[in-house]
Design goal:
heterodimer, A: 313 residues, mainly alpha, MetI-like fold, 2 domains, B: flat
Chain lengths: 313, 300
């Protein structure tokens, strides 16, 4: 009996899957409250609760005053909502001698983010374009090394990079960090662009060449306008990746140019002073806000970005 | 070129010149940093560099010291526990969630958004949130105790024996969404007819998954495995944020060992030796995979 009923429900599922491309069509499943559905949605909802819990705790804690935190439990909603922790986290929290809050780290991160994203995407897209359309002797070998390099732990290459940047005189500067992000963003981005450009119809490229267009002309006039989605995907990858970076921030910047993640860690894990959990959580939320906004706004493109980066790797 | 083609062939070096110029950054990065940098680190791991890298070779001394340092042994043990459990749990949870999501459910997008959002957050944010939730005084332990279970103990971040599991909880929260997404993509790639055939033969659903679908998804599993594994070896920020390696050095990991020796303890040789061991670990994971993945294609 049980078998037959499962078969029926999966049958309904199949029709729906077949209609996947053009949206929901066809028969509706007969029983909404079947035992299967209850288990299915029950498990998914419990899992969803588990995933949402930390976000909820962060928000709730950041809106409470310290006395309430000491008395109550972390899951209870605030009795009195206060935005003071947010103000304090943004403008007053101390790291070392500086007491101007996370805002410093935020602007440092913005300054790091913008040029790093632009430069890394430009370099990687041009490399991907070369690899896809203008292969030369050895280009595939360089590409293979690049891809293998994606798996090498950063710790292995970080000191040689420090030396190289020191030789160039940019160690500890913004330029240095932009170079670092460009270097370590290369494998995944180049792969992304190469695969995308290779999937474009080659006739376009050939036609442009017959018309006399050169390397840069084809890149700017044909490849770039046709590949906006993949540029957006690359941007999402880089914005979240660079914003969330901690290791390079610690190694390649000085305390007054620390990015937000490093400053956040210093604020929360500082040993001196009374722990202000509400300020800590407000600071944590502030740091997580940018990638979260990018994630919620970009939706499917984010998924596509990580899938493109991951599955084809 | 037109009339003289047979007499003067264009120089090979200048063919695709623009492309070569445009690829200079890539070539520099691939050869200079990824290949050159790794070889440099390996070479200097055989020296007794302290504050500055110096080429005075001491053979395998650094490695002998490394493997007789208890902190390194703890790091490796932690990495092994964290790595194995993280692989198992994220594959199992990720696959189960993906299988549930693949039942043509409503609100699929909402569920996916919820499962994946932690992946957008940094390890620092993840570590700090879970540090707060696992806080013994106010977090889960405090709440259960206030409900009347006075002897309830759940303080992974303050207990050296189980601290690595506290980190594992946070790591899984952050990473399983990605695994779910990869698995879901894999499941969607399974041919409809397979399901129909299994249905006609009257095979129950769980058996279809276990004996037909999962074996068919082998490439997805292997790729996912490689992605998670290479991420595990790099784990650093999470530990720094959640425990700073403590209590004592109970939650140290290799990546942190390397950083501390290179940039804090000014003992470069140790740092290089430890990072070379990390490279070796990755190589052990990657080489068989690369062989399976790309070796076959070349032959075929």
């Amino acid at each position: 009996m049980a078998n037959i009923s499962t078969l029926n429900t999966t049958g309904a599922g199949f029709d729906a899957v077949a209609a996947d491309v053009s949206g929901p069509r066809g028969r509706r499943p007969k029983r909404v409250l079947s035992r299967r559905n209850i288990i299915l949605y029950g498990v998914l909802s419990i899992a969803a609760l588990y995933y949402l819990l930390p976000l909820y705790v962060m928000v709730v804690t950041s809106l409470k005053g310290m006395p309430e935190i000491r008395m109550g439990n972390i899951f209870s909603p605030p009795m009195e909502i206060t935005f003071e922790p947010w103000v304090k986290a943004w403008a007053e929290a101390c790291t070392g001698l500086n007491c101007d809050g996370l805002s410093r780290g935020f602007w440092n991160s913005v300054q790091i983010l913008v040029p790093s994203v632009v430069v890394s995407i430009f370099v990687a897209s041009v490399s991907g374009y070369s690899l896809a359309n203008w292969r030369f002797k050895g280009s595939e070998l360089f590409f293979s090394i690049l891809i293998i390099g994606a798996f090498i732990p950063y710790q292995v290459m970080i000191y040689p990079v420090v030396i190289a940047l020191r030789e160039l005189g940019v160690y500890g500067t913004l330029t240095g960090l932009v170079i670092v992000h460009t270097i370590f963003g290369m494998p995944i981005l180049t792969l992304l662009f190469r695969n995308y450009f290779a999937s474009l119809p080659v006739e376009l490229f050939k036609a442009a060449r017959i018309d006399g267009a050169g390397f840069w002309q084809i890149y700017l006039r044909i490849m770039l306008p046709m590949s906006l989605p993949i540029f957006v995907v690359a941007m999402i990858l880089q914005v979240t990746g660079i914003w969330n970076d901690f290791l390079f921030g610690v190694v390649f910047t000085r305390p007054d140019t620390y990015p937000m993640t490093v400053q956040l860690n210093n604020i929360v894990n500082s040993v001196q002073g009374v722990k202000e959990y509400n300020v800590n959580m407000a600071a944590t939320l502030l740091t997580g806000a940018i990638p979260l906004i990018v994630y919620f706004v970009s939706g499917r493109l984010f998924v596509r970005g990580i899938a493109a980066g991951a599955v084809k790797g | 070129m037109t009339g003289h083609a047979p007499a003067k062939r264009p120089n090979q070096l200048f063919r695709n010149l623009n492309s070569k110029i445009a690829s200079i950054p890539m070539i520099l990065i691939a050869m200079g940093i990824f290949l050159g940098g790794s070889l440099w680190t390996i070479l200097y791991s055989f020296t007794n560099s302290k504050l500055l890298p110096r080429l005075s070779f001491v053979g395998l001394d650094q490695y002998e010291r490394l493997w007789s340092t208890s902190r390194w042994i703890i790091s490796i043990q932690n990495l092994a526990i964290y790595g194995i459990l993280s692989l198992i749990f994220s594959l199992v949870i990720g696959f189960l969630l993906a299988a549930l999501m693949d039942q043509k459910i409503r609100f699929e997008n909402a569920f996916r958004t919820i499962f994946l959002y932690p992946f957008a957050l940094s390890f620092i944010v993840t570590g700090l949130v879970w540090q707060w939730i696992l806080n013994p005084e106010f977090g889960i332990q405090g709440i259960v105790r206030s409900l009347g279970f006075e002897n309830f103990t759940f303080d992974p971040l303050y207990n050296p024996d189980i601290v690595i599991y506290g980190i594992l909880i946070a790591g899984l929260w952050q990473g399983t969404g990605l695994v779910m997404c990869l698995m879901l993509a894999g499941l969607r790639g399974i041919d409809e007819d397979i399901w129909k055939a299994a249905r006609v033969d009257g095979i129950p659903m769980w058996r279809t998954y276990l004996f037909i679908v999962i074996p068919m998804m082998r490439p997805v599993f292997i790729t996912t495995l490689v992605i998670i594994a290479s991420g595990i070896v790099k784990v650093y920020d999470l530990v720094v944020a959640q425990t700073s390696g403590g209590p004592g050095n109970a939650s140290e990991v290799p990546a942190k060992y390397v950083y501390d020796y290179m940039f804090q303890a000014q003992n470069l040789g140790q740092g290089f030796a430890a990072s070379t061991m990390m490279l070796l670990t990755v190589a052990i994971i990657i080489i068989p995979w690369a062989y399976l993945e790309f070796g076959g294609k070349k032959r075929g």
